[in-house]
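Entry for the shared binder. Reason: the reviewer on the internal report wants the predicted structure included alongside the sequence.
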Amino acid sequence: MTGPLVEIENLRVAFRNDDGSWNDAVRGVSFSLGREKLGIVGESGSGKSLTGRSLLGVLPDYARISADRLRFDGIDLTTASPKLRRSLRGGRMGMILQDPKYSLNPVMNVGKQIIEAIRIGDRKLSGAEARRQAVTSLEAVQIRDPERVMGLYPHELSGGMGQRVMIAMMVVREPDLLIADEPTSALDVTVRTQVLSIMDELVTRRGMGLIFISHDLNLVSKFCDRVIVMYAGRIVETLDAKNLHAAQHPYTRGLLACLPSIDGSLEPLPTLTRDASWLEAAS
């Protein structure tokens, strides 16, 4: 592939207010993605998750979506049929959600859920082969005794194991694009490091594009290649992840200043002082 994997230009997402007016939640977002790890950071409500869900086409029917360009690997998603969008989701495009306890089906064991994801993409695949692939996918995310885990239900999984199961389910069909929405926020430091290592290895080995949505600026600066900073539905800054701590926009610098440091001052952390001009920042 020579061109970008993802192209987004002037993406807008709005929801209707009670008085009939429209509230813009994503306002003119534009960026492209290659076979790389792209971080999207910002406060809650800045439009990070909505941007990822727009790409997958999983926003509710009452959302109003428009874009001058919304393309995946040359496919125009603004004109793609619902059937094509469904075939892309879970196949060439996958999404890891924040909390596996709410993302996995509580009444189906892990094995059935992974096998279902596999067989949706290949109805002719035998049950035995689908099971073999499911076990292999659990092994790929470093789950010990995958045969035993196949029979477990979501409530029987720890947070770290549940997140690994979600990753296995999303990558078992080897997607070209993986969107990870706060995949480590509910994990302790040790498990988080393990999960990130697994994701990094899978993305690198399989040549995927990754959109990593997070609140953790330190994490994104170490894990991603590039970073997009969003505020109030707009992109205010884009920079190399290694240069995140040298950001120039006052919003990004404000977020960084609010981060605690183990060897930092004992003074209260600063609060973010907002400027009305940020709302009109160009994407």
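Summary line for the report: The chain has a mean pLDDT of 88.
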